[in-house]
Design brief:
With about 375 residues, the chain is an alpha+beta fold. It contains twelve helices and 15 strands.
Length: about 375
Amino acid sequence: MEKILDIVDAIAHEKGLKPEQIKQALKTAFVQTAKRVINNKFAFEANIDTDTKTMIIVQTITVVADDNEILKDEERAPAFISISDAREYDDQVELEDQLQIEHKLEDYGRTAAASLHREIEYHIQRLVEDDIFNKYKSKVGSLISGRVTRVDDANTTYVEVDEIRAILPMKSRIKGEYFKVGDHIKAVVRRVNMDKEQGIQIELSRTSPKFLEELLSLEVPEISDGTVIIERSARIPGERAKIALVSMHPQVDAVGATVGVKGVRINAVSKELIGENIDCIEYTSIPELFVSRTMSPAIISHVEIIKNEAGENEKAIVTLPSDQKSKAIGKSGINIRLASMLTGFNIELVENDTASNQESGQIEESKESVDALKALFS
């Protein structure tokens, strides 16, 4: 125990922590042990003697006047001493001076040693957990990969990621995909919690739009280096997705760079998403134009943005030919749902029959002209 500081660097290296963190944890452990085995009402302080590499425990007592009311307070009195009592030890002492009494835990036998061991173990473990928690807290929304270690009866997948085990709930798994022990999977960190009983809990997701964005960043260099930015994204996992892209360079086509030659880049991402179709759209800050683009592959005639009383955009009324309505809605309404998710508008479709009526009138007019010619030459 005397040379305990010799192991600071070893613990720091083994646990991946900073030596200063370990030293502070040891100080706390010594103080807590002193309170437990000596007197929990005493004010202790732990200091490091760099020459002997030992920890020195001192009890600090503040000198106060003989009639000070604090001496009558049972809870606070142990940290104070009257000036009369203090001068029995040192006749030069003055009010507000702080006397320090050194204590050696070795004098308190095995009980102190066992208590110190538990305290050190506890505080080092807290440091490790805090370090891991902060590490993964900063990774929320980031892509990580790991190996499947278990799949329970509720189809929750347990994934080993570096030094910790994360969980991928069934609700955060793409429909139709199954994992078995030994599989290596990618996912984004969805949530990180610290639980007193169960420790650190990391939840992963493969259904989040952020997962799509991270995969695209991994596959498309222009996205990873910031030349192309994913402005918005929306997904119905395993079925279809829409992403709005912006190019930060005039000579780079955002959509073309993301799709890649013959669709090689976007297809690689789609494969990871179990065949999910991905529509790439060029983003614009003009809401009417943006809504029109998100309704692709339907051809839109007109878009009107309706505002509420507060002047905020409330919904988009999309006018389109009747033969484009099914394309705008999509299978099971998937296209219009994604467009609404991407733009943030409630989208209302209105059929435009003007074009059909004009075409019908032109046909009737042509028939009348043919009939007139026939009558002329008969």
